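When time allows, look over one protein, given below as sequence and tokens. The question is which stretches look regular and which look disordered:
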Amino acid sequence: MLYMLSELSDGGGVFNLFRYITFRSGGAFFTALIFGFMFGTPLINLLKRKQTNGQPIREDGPQSHILDKAGTPTMGGVLVLGALIVSTLIWARLDNPYVWLVLFVTVAFGMVGFADDYAKVTKNNSKGVSSRVRFGIGLAVAAVAGYWAAQVHPSDLSNQLAVPVFKDVLINLGIIYIPFTMLVIVGSANAVNLTDGLDGLAIMPVMIAAGTLGVIAYAVGRVDFSQYLDVHYVPGTGELLVFSAGLIGGGLGFLWYNAPPAAVFMGDTGSLALGGALGAIAVATKHEIVLAIVGGLFVVEALSVIIQVLYFKRTGKRVFLMAPIHHHYEKRGWSESQIVIRFWIISLVLALVGLATLKLR
């Protein structure tokens, strides 16, 4: 919205600043951060009044959670989403299709997560909305996003899968492109959702991944940068840096209240939405494979659940003491803060590896 102020510039002056993605990204970051600080306490107080018993805790989970986390309200993801949406609408170019594509996925998954959280709280049950319903709606949203992306990508990149490191390699997925994007977006959303099990565990890796993907979006959205780095040029994606900056600002505002011991949980409202957003940015920028590197922590968390379930069904035994894998380390005696900080470090290292793929050609 504020980008329109650049039209008042004659090539110089203060209004010319609004032409620059970097300036507007800074504005989006601080807008989202201030939003989080302004509305965090009122929202938490409202959630506490509305949620008498807080988020239902899994009975089969670590016993410490039942003792320490009972009564903590959920749906804190509303704070992150509110900050993200407001900052993006204010600072991003609203004539950019990639901005609306990513916002669509984020809001849609956020609504699914909100319905799930609402069902859990009102029924005082940790199951919430049926997994089939959530998964089905998620696939539908991702299918729309995949088709949308195929329409707005340049013709030489539409339905193509770019392979990192190999600068000239494009794999034409043809009719399986949309199913592939569905896998990326839904997989990302659910992987982040599975990671969100300890105070602050999911939100920081999400911010790290968003910052990394934002830098990638800015690079592939500029002709000069894409030529220098030998990456595929996707015009318009640079604007997603504004979205990513808003996500980081909103995430930091939420983390202020989610730092152990958490005053509020993100819930599926936040985890599904933010995971879907990461998947959508990766699809928009043609960096789906790099997402698996940058978001490697989420991949491991999801794989730990899949491996545990399949192995238990086959043998009746468990690979991990408990899945997702962060609970395995809890069972082994690691403190919550040890797990969270060490997983943050792993996320940062993986983000640097993902960024290295831009230059490694």
Summary: The first strand starts at residue 160 and ends at 162. The CA atoms of residues 105 and 141 lie 7 Å apart. Residues 2-359 form one domain.
